[in-house]
Amino acid sequence: MEFVVLTDSGSDVPLQLAQELGIYIVPDRIIRADGTEYLDREQISIDDVLEWQYRNEVIRTSQPPPAAFYEVMEKAAATGKPILAIILTSKLSGTYQSAKIAMEMVDAPIVLWDSRSVSIGTGIFAILAAKMAKAGYSLEQTLKTLKDTQKSLKILALFDSLTYLRRGGRIGRAQEVFGTLVGAKPILEVTIEGTLEPKKKVVGGRQRALSYMARELATYAERFKDDVLLVAAHTDTPKDLEALVNSVKKTISPKIEVLSRLGPAITAHGGPGLTAMGVGIAPKEIEGFTLDLSKMTY
Q1: Any residues with CB less than 8 A from the CB of 48 and at least 6 apart, and which?
Q2: Within the chain, which residue ranges are assigned CATH 3.40.50.10170?
Q3: Which of 36, 116, 177, 298 makes the best surface tag, with the fewest CB within 10 Å?
Q4: What is the pTM of this model?
Q5: Nearest of 151, 152, 113, 109 to residue 129 by alpha carbon
């Protein structure tokens, strides 16, 4: 391996896969209404967060402090290899800033890269980078490949409610109102700049909203022909995710396909009923593969 990969738990890379690929993970913090704080995935599960949300408990998150990044960066630096740190979008979280502060305290070559995405949209870059490192690609070539995929990645997310995003400060009150029309389901897009913006309100229920997402993403992905990358994730809607993936695959045949479940930190902001999918160009440097991360240990 020419370098090692580090990311934060907001990337939703399962711990099991991280161990297999040699990815270092820095955990976010999950905070309950009574102030009790947990390390993302190390001390709390996705289902714990959902159970509290079903009871209408307000769950907050906090980015890893610089000290947490420093500790994991030091472990990664002990390998003697350069570190590629792939971090949650700086436009929605302070995680990038924490990593930047920590990086300056570590005596090792570290490249800090803003994924401009969230959840598996960040995680897919960590996975691709780790696979390229194992295949012997240089850090410079890997970054070029990641940037090409980043420019192409289009992610849409269907929410049951935008209340959780507003509570966490990820959107404002005006954007929350976007999703309050009775009978309408809000779809948001992760933009190329790494922000989360309203895409469409679909009137007529959840299935119609999923159909809209499938059409939009399949049409967009056709331009990549045989080199399609597909990522998809959910909080508690596995059947919806399966239907969405199957619908898109009627039009395209992904070279790389990664299905996942959103982790505790992302679930805290997305809430129950969140289903997301992204498509982009698959790197030519990597052979095709399919991963169902929802079956792995988070």
Answers
A1: 264
A2: 4-151
A3: 36
A4: 0.94
A5: 113
Could you count the other beta carbons within 10 Å of the beta carbon of residue 19? 11
Sequential pLDDT tens for the chain (298 residues): 789 999 999 999 999 999 999 999 999 999 999 999 999 989 999 999 999 999 999 999 999 999 999 999 999 999 999 999 999 999 999 999 999 999 999 999 999 999 999 999 999 999 999 999 999 999 999 999 999 999 999 999 999 988 888 775 545 443 444 445 456 889 999 999 999 999 998 878 899 999 999 999 999 999 999 999 999 999 999 999 999 999 999 999 999 999 999 999 999 999 999 999 999 999 999 999 999 988 776 6
Q: Which phi and psi angles does 180 have, rounded to 5°?
A: -100, -5
Q: Please give the class, per CATH, of domain 4-151.
A: alpha beta
The pair of three-digit structure tokens given for residue 298, joined into one six-digit string: 């988070």
Say how far apart CA 83 and CA 79 lie, in whole Å: 9
Q: Where in the chain is the domain with CATH 3.30.1180.10?
A: 152-295
Nearest Cα neighbor of 59 from 90, 91, 37, 89 is: 37
Q: Which CATH number fits domain 152-295: 3.40.20.10, 2.60.290.11, 3.20.20.70, 3.30.1180.10?
A: 3.30.1180.10
